Amino acid sequence: MLKLGILISGNGSNLQAIIDAIAAGDLDARIEVVISNKPNAYGLERARAAGIRAVCIKPSSFTVAEEPTHSYNEALRRILVDADVDWVVMAGYMKLLGPEVLNAFPNHVINLHPALLPKFPGAHAIEEAFAAGVPTTGVTVHIANERFDDGPILAQTEVPINPDDTLEALEARIHAAEHQLLPQTLAELCSTR
Ligand code: GAR
Questions:
Q1: CA quadruple 164, 116, 146, 52: dihedral sign
Q2: How far apart are CA 125 and CA 122, in angstroms?
Q3: Is 151 in the pocket of ligand 1 (CB under 6 A)?
Q4: Angle, CA of 104, 15 and 173, to the nearest 5°
Q5: Angle between the 13-23 and 167-192 helix axes, to the nearest 10 degrees?
Q6: How many whole angstroms from 1 Cα to the centroid of ligand 1?
Q7: Are 177 and 138 a contacting pair, CB within 8 Å?
Q8: pTM to 2 decimals?
């Protein structure tokens, strides 16, 4: 069984997909803790509704004297280590993760990204692929490193962009693909361990 720590920044629909996959018996995992860097992230409510411990750590609550980025990542690391997780999953976590966390879980930090990496990294991947007029984009799950949306790829799903697509329709299909691929990749990690 995987013991997961999930990092979020917003809606948490991918967190919900993991919660649902566990409930359906499709993923042998337990979410030990959900951490958000944003206090108003809806994913915190989703976690609490599922009986999962949900914590917000605001990067801005660390003072300059404390070296804020280091102290923030150190606080993240402490919660994840204390919760005894074995995999950290960035499911819509829109911040770079510091070496404090990456080094505590070597090769065990996963990121989800709404494009076919290495194409369209960053916070606006769906919009950028749509604007670029490429015929295909998709979804990537990869091992995270100290750079944004970078690291060894574990799984990808292609999502075609249709000539008459709207951005909203494309976003909906990308999110649906993510909700399949992330729990499925975690289930594969579980079976290959
Ligand atoms: C997802 O589309 C995820 O791929 C993206 O944020 C969204 C979070 O949605 N992450 C990135 O863009 C990382 N570069 P959610 O909060 O509903 O799960």
A1: positive
A2: 6
A3: no
A4: 125
A5: 40
A6: 25
A7: yes
A8: 0.95
